Amino acid sequence: MPRKKPFSNKQKKKQLQVKRERKRGDGSGPSSRNASVERGAERQSDTSDSEAADIRRINQQPGREGRHDPNRFRLHFERETKEEVEKRKKVAREKILQPVSEKEMEINIGDIYPADKGLGIPRRPSWTYDMTREQLLRKEEKSYREYLDDLHSRNPPGSLSHFEHNLETWRQLWRVLEMSDVILLIVDIRHPVLQFPPTLYSYITEELRKQVVLVLNKADLCPPPLVIAWKHYLASQFPHLLTVCFTSHPGQAYATVLQKKRLRKKAGCGQAGGPTDIMKACREITAGKVDLASWEKKINRDAVAERPDGEPAGDALDTVLMEHLSDAAMEMSRPSEELYKDGILTLGCIGFPNVGKSSVINSLVGRKVVSVSRTPGHTKYFQTYYLTPTVKLCDCPGLVFPSRVDKQLQILAGIYPVSQLQEPYSSVGYLCERTSFLSLLKLKHPSLEDAPKHHSLGDYDKPEPSWTAWDVCEAWAEKRCYKTAKAARNDVYRAANSLLRLAVDGRLCLCVRPPGYSCLKGHWENHPDLPEIIALQGRTEGDEAGEREEEEELEESSTEPEEEERDRDADDDEDRDGDDEDEGFRESRKKVAVPPGNLTVNMFNVLRENECE
Length: 613
Ligand SMILES: Nc1nc2c(ncn2[C@@H]2O[C@H](COP(=O)(O)OP(=O)(O)OP(=O)(O)O)[C@@H](O)[C@H]2O)c(=O)[nH]1
Prior knowledge:
Bound molecules: guanosine-5'-triphosphate
Number of domains: 2
CATH class of the largest domain: Alpha Beta
Shape: globular
Strand order of the largest sheet: 3-2-1-5-7-6-4
Largest sheet: 7 strands, mixed
CATH topology of the largest domain: Rossmann fold
Helix content: 40-55%
Strand content: 5-15%
């Protein structure tokens, strides 16, 4: 018997890949994540292919019924050329960072979603019960291809944002919109216009004839005057839109990990800011057609159920009935024509990835029923939960809608995953020009790294060194001891990624402004609604004093885990526990613990002092 030939890992991988493609009946090439790029190339030979093969190639969609495809919901990304990456790296090394004015941070929704660029959502084509499942899927894929072609024909290459290319995920949105009576469209208050496609709003309100409640989430991360300004701006653009401010983590934006745990225990999951406002908005919409008394009772019960021992109160321990719909139900069902069927209000939570949809659901329920993660795209399949016998919640996977948001903002708003970036430095530059990074990160310029610690008198005449994005990454790598494995040089790439993740998480907080904000700043800063927003954010005088006390108490064990180093796809709760924190790191953190009361309590730039040491 002939001896087996040695087989490298790489060859084995390739072999498995080909085998999988063959099984799927797709001989068109590798199933890499940059299918959207491949699609462009494939399109040139489209005319000669049969329709079936043509359709199957869209995003490498799963080809056959009943076959499990682990990549079914994977995201697709365009890859940049090596030259582009190198060019941007050079700029990051050379361009001196200049602070950007507040005016330049104002964003008009019309610039993000211009009306004439076809930035709609793919629609589910019409169908009849005579059609087979295969025919329906094929029709949907064909219509989806046409949607993409139209989109690309109206927007020159490079002008469109990264957006959801997976038809499977769009199908989930269709289904959630169809089965819901009221849509909770959740956006991140730091940049709401990036995540509010007007065409989606008009599709829901005009075609589906359903109401939208816009949830301005993560209100704890944004200055109160800006929250109010955004609310007013959106109301001026969409006069019939109901808008609600919300936070799942009131008072936690500037707390340490351990503080957050305690606050969570102290407050319980249900103490989010905003559930009552959502309930009131739903009451206004349903106008007595659904009995929402059970919901109101639940909110009141959750409010008084705050227990010092952190145990959830009776109601929160009740079983939450959960429904999981089969694929067949997703494919062959019509929009529910009857609103509030069986006297039940179904609320569909939709929005971009990572805006906090699952957190809103958990906060409304009063305990964790949906897993939450800092990694965008964590929710893959929609599920429904009964909040009370007459209110049902439906969680939808996050979807990125096509827009004209520029690349840097896409990254910092979590639209384009940091993990997919080939060149993170220019995004760091963009971030630094729009935040007071120097005072927050407390960086020492790399050129001063070897300089003596204490200034001589003459040193004060020297101008402060200017910063490039590269310098910032170098300095952050130095500060955090990020070293390359081989040469033990500062690991700037890791530092850049770390900074971007702090920004996405809202700890190095970048908030964009509505048009006209800088001119009317004084007006928003003295607005009568300010106390309401401050209370919602969980920031009261008393709380701050309490936090400081808690800080003193916690100072001994101030061991913030190096969060960005962890598996970001892990569930938030596990993720933030810090129990498996590296011993050495824990020790080093102890050494740099900040004196009590010396925390930077800057809620809009919530990176803490002890994270910068
Ligand atoms: N500061 C702050 N963080 C929040 C809030 N709500 C959610 N987050 C954080 O935002 C991240 C994303 O939250 P999720 O609830 O998983 O968001 P999602 O929209 O369901 O995300 P996908 O599953 O990607 O669609 C998590 O790290 C949450 O802890 C909030 O109100 N304030």
